[in-house]
């Protein structure tokens, strides 16, 4: 999801509660395994060393804070916000929201009346506190040996220079600036430079096509774009500048002119080898170093827009999600701190690209607000060898690793030796986001990568939610493979049936959110009606997530898949995530995707796409044994009707399976696949079609 935006392998291949700050605790923590898949069960009790520097050592500690956050959100968030720098404090009645379309327009206002600047809080605040020489970014290039270290002081100066350049070309508060960069230090720097001026950044993942980029520039009317001459992803060159040129042409044809392009010189495309538009294009290396290294921040209203970002488009047309400044800042910092047990100076690595919400909240803003040392890796995970990630973990002594299930499965498929070759003793917390993590991948992460020492933090959230919504807190309560467990502070999840009736106790339903939370989406760019319709018209007074979810008797929430993807087999509601997890638990299967198809008797049947492990044959015996695995783990009613061998799965550039395409292929509607341009590898579609089977 954008949320995700992870290094999808197929892309080529605060405050009071912190009383115990600094104390190292060795806690005994029980890890309960509910899903009995694969025979492997996490032992009841594991030794987990963690420094609960947040002061939350148990579920009871959490419950106390959670109650406060929900009963008195204005007070709870106000106390935390006081730890940040504000030019003007918020008004006493700063927390207001209306989530009910019938009683007026949907709106959320938090810290209303307050004025702040998030770049100041990410950088100046820490430098003023004496952290200027602490590493801010530890950058690793695509190729081994390419590295760069930037301190907080250096990043602050560079941000000021870029901000001064932006000012020199006329960028003012409220203007949108497009950013189309590979994962180099200049990417978060460009974001912060915009933020410093109160300009609204729109980061477009540097893998999107010219048309996608043009469409996003037109939608938010950005006339300035920050880009690079090129990029490398594994052994593949990405012709960024050519794509920008093509996008500018497309935009011009539609009446939108890109006035300025600031171009970072990337070694993949040095000067002279890069197409150039005189008057429009400016080399970063010529323009930025000449700028002053200080720049007054623009104090903005808490409710002024901070950035806009398009969703990953797994379910349809991407939406331009708009986030606010104050609420987002406090939400990003607080979730990053508690979910990852993050403290100043911790080495933290989020593998997401800044092109997705995860990269915004947990690569750029969240960790910087917490004064962490951020690892940034430009390349792809398996380049040049399958141990690249583990090599970086060892080299940088990464404490927290935040990544995605798609990547975890790809790494698992390479075998354990690659992991074990490298020292991982620095690791304390392992996080996952983007899609449901199947228990087998969860266990591999926990047992092999984390050597059973590190809590696995399965975070559920969305581009629209801005920050983590449901997630374990490290060491505070037992995790459960595949479950995001409990809601974060201030988040009130509810499960409803399809008529909108709230369901209580252990049950399954559609996940909605009551009340609002600091980093909630404020609107969709240029279309507040669409915002209201998409999220608040389905169920009165509730934010509709679009995800199905189960709550067990411990109160744990487990995402079962998208509501649109729920399959109804002979009256049984079957979550796609569960069938996929059961298939993936089978040794022969690396990844699976299931969709529902019309079935004469059952209403809907289950159609499963299975990607086999390298040494596996698509035999009749394997097919039978995969079906048997689903029968055993879920029940006979969930047994797939069709197994379609797939050389790979169609995924968005953020690594999510595009089931809408798989649904069409399943019913032979090859001409109705729709827009496949946001796919990481569109060629996989033909490859899947060519392996079609008919067994229904
Ligand atoms: P679009 O809304 O355009 O279809 P998208 O929903 O894929 O795109 P994101 O906001 O990146 O865009 O993804 C959010 C979705 O990702 C969630 O609604 C959920 O389906 C899924 N998701 C994210 N994290 C988790 C998780 N930990 N467990 C289960 N599902 C998750
Ligand atoms: Mg979505």
UniProtKB/TrEMBL annotation:
Q: Which domain of life is it from?
A: Eukaryota
Specify the enzyme's EC class, one word. Answer: ligase
| EC number in record | 6.2.1.1
The catalysed reaction is: acetate + ATP + CoA = acetyl-CoA + AMP + diphosphate
GO process annotations (BP): acetyl-CoA biosynthetic process from acetate
CDD domains assigned: ACS (cd05966)
Q: Which Gene3D superfamilies match?
A: 3.30.300.30, N-terminal domain of ligase-like
Signal peptide as annotated in the record: none
Q: Domain AMP-dependent synthetase/ligase, which positions? A: 133-516
The Swiss-Prot or TrEMBL record annotates one GO molecular function as: AMP binding
Q: Which Pfam families match?
A: ACAS_N, AMP-binding, AMP-binding_C
Keyword list (alphabetical) reads: ATP-binding, Ligase, Nucleotide-binding
Q: Where is the Acetyl-coenzyme A synthetase N-terminal domain?
A: 62-122
- The segment(s) forming the AMP-binding enzyme C-terminal domain are 578-656
What NCBIfam families does the record point to?
Ac_CoA_lig_AcsA, PRK00174.1
What the record says about family reads: Belongs to the ATP-dependent AMP-binding enzyme family.
Q: What is this protein called?
A: Acetyl-coenzyme A synthetase
Recorded source organism is: Elliptochloris bilobata
């Amino acid at each position: 999801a954008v949320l995700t935006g992870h290094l999808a392998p197929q892309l080529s291949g605060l405050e009071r509660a912190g009383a115990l700050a600094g104390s190292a605790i060795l806690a005994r923590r029980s890890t309960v395994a509910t899903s009995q898949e694969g025979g492997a069960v996490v032992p009841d009790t594991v030794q987990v060393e963690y420094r609960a520097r947040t002061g939350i050592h148990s579920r009871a500690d959490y419950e106390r804070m959670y109650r406060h956050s929900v009963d008195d959100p204005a007070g709870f968030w106000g106390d935390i916000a006081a730890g940040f720098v504000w030019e003007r404090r918020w008004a006493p009645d700063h927390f207001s929201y209306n989530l009910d379309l019938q009683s007026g327009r949907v709106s959320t206002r938090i810290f209303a009346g307050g004025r702040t600047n998030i770049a100041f809080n990410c950088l100046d605040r820490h430098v003023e506190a004496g952290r200027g020489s602490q590493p801010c970014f530890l950058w690793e290039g695509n190729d081994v040996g390419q590295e760069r270290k930037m301190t907080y002081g250096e990043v602050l100066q560079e941000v000021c220079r870029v901000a001064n350049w932006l000012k020199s070309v006329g960028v003012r508060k409220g203007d949108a600036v497009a950013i189309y960069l590979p994962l180099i230090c200049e990417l978060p720097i460009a974001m912060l430079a915009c933020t410093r001026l109160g300009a609204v950044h729109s980061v477009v993942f540097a893998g999107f096509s010219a048309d996608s980029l043009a469409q996003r520039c037109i939608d938010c009317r950005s006339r300035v774009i920050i880009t690079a001459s090129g990029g490398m992803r594994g052994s593949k060159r990405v012709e960024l500048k050519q794509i920008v040129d093509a996008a500018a042409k497309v935009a011009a044809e539609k009446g939108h002119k890109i006035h300025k392009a600031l171009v970072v010189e990337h070694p993949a495309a040095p000067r002279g080898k890069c197409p150039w538009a005189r008057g429009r294009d400016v080399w970063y290396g010529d323009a930025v170093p000449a700028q002053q290294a200080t720049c007054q921040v623009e104090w903005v209203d808490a409710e002024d827009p901070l950035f806009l970002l398009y969703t990953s488009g797994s379910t349809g047309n991407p939406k331009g999600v708009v986030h606010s400044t104050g609420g987002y800042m406090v939400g990003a910092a607080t979730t990053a701190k508690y979910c990852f047990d993050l403290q100043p100076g911790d080495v933290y690595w989020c593998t997401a690209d800044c092109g997705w919400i995860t990269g915004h909240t947990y690569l750029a803003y969240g960790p910087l607000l917490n004064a962490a040392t951020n690892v940034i890796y430009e390349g792809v995970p398996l380049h040049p060898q399958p141990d690249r990630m583990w090599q970086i973990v060892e080299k940088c002594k990464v404490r927290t690793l935040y990544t995605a299930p798609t990547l975890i499965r790809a790494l698992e498929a390479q075998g354990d030796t690659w992991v074990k070759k490298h020292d991982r003793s620095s690791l304390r917390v392992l996080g996952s986001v983007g899609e449901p993590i199947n228990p087998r991948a969860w266990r591999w992460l926990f047992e092999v990568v984390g050597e059973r020492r590190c809590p696995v933090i399965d975070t559920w959230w969305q581009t629209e939610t801005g920050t983590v919504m449901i997630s374990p807190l490290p060491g505070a309560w037992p995790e459960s493979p595949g479950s995001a467990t409990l809601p974060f502070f201030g988040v009130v999840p509810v499960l409803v049936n399809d008529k909108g009736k709230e369901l209580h106790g252990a049950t399954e339903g559609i996940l909605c959110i009551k009340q609002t939370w600091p980093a909630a989406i404020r609107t969709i760019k240029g279309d507040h009606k669409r915002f209201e319709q998409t999220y608040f018209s389905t169920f009165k007074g509730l934010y509709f997530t679009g995800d199905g979810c189960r709550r067990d008797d411990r109160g744990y929430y487990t995402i079962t898949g998208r509501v649109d993807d729920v399959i109804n087999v002979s009256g049984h509601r079957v979550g796609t995530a569960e069938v996929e997890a059961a298939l993936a638990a089978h040794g022969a299967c690396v990844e699976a995707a299931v969709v529902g198809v019309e079935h004469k008797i059952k209403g809907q049947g289950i159609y499963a796409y299975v990607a086999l492990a390298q040494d596996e044959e698509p035999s009749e015996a394997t097919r039978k044994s995969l079906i048997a695995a689903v029968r055993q783990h879920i029940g006979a009613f969930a047994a797939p009707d069709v197994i379609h061998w797939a050389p790979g799965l169609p995924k968005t550039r953020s690594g999510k399976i595009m089931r809408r395409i798989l649904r069409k292929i399943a019913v032979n509607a090859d001409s109705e696949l729709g827009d496949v341009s946001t796919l990481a590898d569109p060629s996989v579609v033909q490859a899947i079609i060519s392996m079609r089977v008919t067994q229904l």
